Amino acid sequence: MRDEITRTDHKYVEVAERIETQIENEVLKVGDKLLSVRALSKEQGISLSTAFQAYYALESKGLIEARPQSGYYVKHSKRFMRDLPRPSEPLDEALPVTIDDMINSVYVNLNSGSLLNFSMAAPAIELLPVAKLNKAVAHALRESETSCLHYEHIQGSVALRKQIGRQAFNWGGTPGENDIVVTAGCVEALSLCIKAVTRPGDAVAIESPTYFAIFQLMQSYGLKVVEIPTDPVTGIDIDHLEQAITRFDIKACLVVNNFNNPLGSCMPDDRKERLVHMLALKEIPLIEDDIYGELYFGKTRPKTCKTFDKKGLVLHCGSFSKSLAPGYRIGWTIPGIYKDAVLRLKRMHTVSTNSLAQAAVANFLENGRYELHLRHLRKALHTQSLRYFQAVCEHFPEDTLITRPQGGFTLWIELNKKINAFKLHKRALKHNIGIAPGQIFSSQGTYENCFRISYGAPWSPAIEGGIKTLAKIIHDWR
Amino acid sequence: MRDEITRTDHKYVEVAERIETQIENEVLKVGDKLLSVRALSKEQGISLSTAFQAYYALESKGLIEARPQSGYYVKHSKRFMRDLPRPSEPLDEALPVTIDDMINSVYVNLNSGSLLNFSMAAPAIELLPVAKLNKAVAHALRESETSCLHYEHIQGSVALRKQIGRQAFNWGGTPGENDIVVTAGCVEALSLCIKAVTRPGDAVAIESPTYFAIFQLMQSYGLKVVEIPTDPVTGIDIDHLEQAITRFDIKACLVVNNFNNPLGSCMPDDRKERLVHMLALKEIPLIEDDIYGELYFGKTRPKTCKTFDKKGLVLHCGSFSKSLAPGYRIGWTIPGIYKDAVLRLKRMHTVSTNSLAQAAVANFLENGRYELHLRHLRKALHTQSLRYFQAVCEHFPEDTLITRPQGGFTLWIELNKKINAFKLHKRALKHNIGIAPGQIFSSQGTYENCFRISYGAPWSPAIEGGIKTLAKIIHDWR
Q1: CATH number for the domain including A260?
Q2: What SS3 class is residue A349?
Q3: Chain centroid to CA B382
Q4: What distance in Å separates residue A319's CA from the closest CA in chain B?
Q5: Which of A111, A200, A356 sits opposite B356 (nearest CB)?
Q6: In the predicted model, is pLDDT for residue B251 greater than 80?
């Protein structure tokens, strides 16, 4: 059904956006009554059903509420939101990594069905085009001479690489199929790229906080990490990075520029260009994890560092795991001048990637279904991000700081310093609630009073109950 | 169709086997005329069609031939076969590995459709149960609440691990589902296991010759390899290994005991027990690549080292890639006391394995289809091994030495010392024929006059033409 909605839905969206702007600018204030649906319809010269749709959209974002027998009221204004967390201030050191045991403790119960899981940065299944993907699987089996039982090219299916190349057009990329290497998810892409550009003992610069799986990879390859201060809106501090490169003899850089996990920050495109330029002058490879890039809440897809890469020093990594089919484990990298090295490592460690999943994803994209699906997914995630955000604002203590993600899946929450997030995780687990404590997002034991929640699951009474329970644990902290 | 044949085919098999024994013992000699079908039927008290089936089975193995208007004649005796290659005598050194470029040259054209590919040790698609696997995929999608879009357990699907545990019964194993880790093919299993038990700079003992992908893994982890002499019938030389362990401070051992690639050797089970015992006394972990173990040509499945593992020091690795579904990339390891280390590495480098492929394979096995399929696959491979073997005997120069594989996919051929196998590979490629030259099976540049061919593809005029062309290139060598 969802996929059938077309772009003729413009009118209600436009009306809703104008009302949203009025709320943001406090032309309409919290508690104000809105026009009746009938009055709105008359005033705007739109049908009753379009007027209803506009209010419904605002309601689903949590900006207005319907009061029985009375009408619609403004419920929420961005002016009332909590402060942002401060830009991070990690220690200025190159450190070996040792947060492994904590991560294992957080993720050991991941697949327990009863867990209310705020710790997985992934979309709920109901947000995915299940029926159409199943059709794509059936198609792929029918169209393949071998029913996808053959070993695929080590570099990946040609049909899929073509589609990944086409998709790159959205961020200003024009890779040929020969520039792309398909991998078993984005983590394999990152693993191969890190290994391709470093040797044990090298120092690598990363954002702080950083997705913990990246620390684990660094640890596994015997690398040191240098954590660079990162702003929850604009991303890594380029000046600081430039100084760190000299001081720590940094050999590579790894960033999640678009909707950083956990911060949700998005580096503005002109800063990306500056970052690429600065690193190119020093001949330092930049691994770019763009796994969330398509999941933007703004008007356009943000560009990538690869967009500005003239020397082939950017190793772009992406995946369909966060936007289409987590269980298929299909990712890719566009590794520039490191392609041969990446391919050689791929051959050594996992050979080719699953043929059937590659063919199914290629089929889905060939039929133009991905763009349509992404539009719906972005809307849903945006709405969910606002709902979760507001619930945290409403229930958590006054001194809580919260990020405003511009895309992706995650809220980063900074609590009063007396709260230890790893203990919070342990206590929440007793209530069957999973969160990702701040400690696992740094090698320095910082972010002790921070944690990450994912808003990948649609808003529901159970989710609301979970957030209230978390709030209660924090309120009752001792 | 093939899967419908049942075990009532015993009678003709039994008669054929008795005739085969007579040929082996030269009770029947090459050129001898066999009884007519009618006479055989009378003599043995079997139906005419059973007698026909028996001769047909012997003919398909290339042991007898039908001469028009005349009857069946003995065509081939094992007594007339070429000598075996000698047990290997690798240099007694711990060496870093550098055969990478040669391997890339051999495997760059792997997916070219026009190539007559003797270089892939894998089954032809027509030997696989394509239709039933497709049904298993459809079943898996229907039965899964998420249509297999969820991230699977990092350790692998519970249903699949149960089936792998059941299958292990064949070699005397009784692993629980919790002892097994599912991987993206056997290469990932080996990669994780090697990494789990070694550190860069360590020395690892392997067979000589050894499957080149294993060298590449060792190289990638910065390990040294010590190549141990290996017999083309009974496998690695345990006494030599024991001495090498002390001299080179060996930290781990990796063997392909069952139908070694490329030798086709199968270590007798009592030697396996001795090997495990010897290594256990020294607390040295043994990585066992059992990917070909189910593809035996004899009466029973050979045991594994894991069968005799009391201390949990054996890391058993297997896969469905060679026996069921190459493109699905589903393998596993039973890593004993190293399970936590292996799981941690799996989480770091590829997270979970494709959910759909795991569910499809589990479904296929649950329905008892795997055993039936394996019976047919073993027969087909045995027949193919004999056909290829005989063609090489027939067409190659007199001084050619050839292995007699007891299972698996590969013949290892030793040519006159004047022939350089890497040059042979280059020349064969001009005729669109792919072989695996001996040089890539050692880090010492030995086996220069050896090469490996796979008999995974059913016998055909094209295959015969390919072998004749290879023979001609060798005969015309200058």
Answers
A1: 3.40.640.10
A2: helix
A3: 12
A4: 12
A5: A356
A6: yes
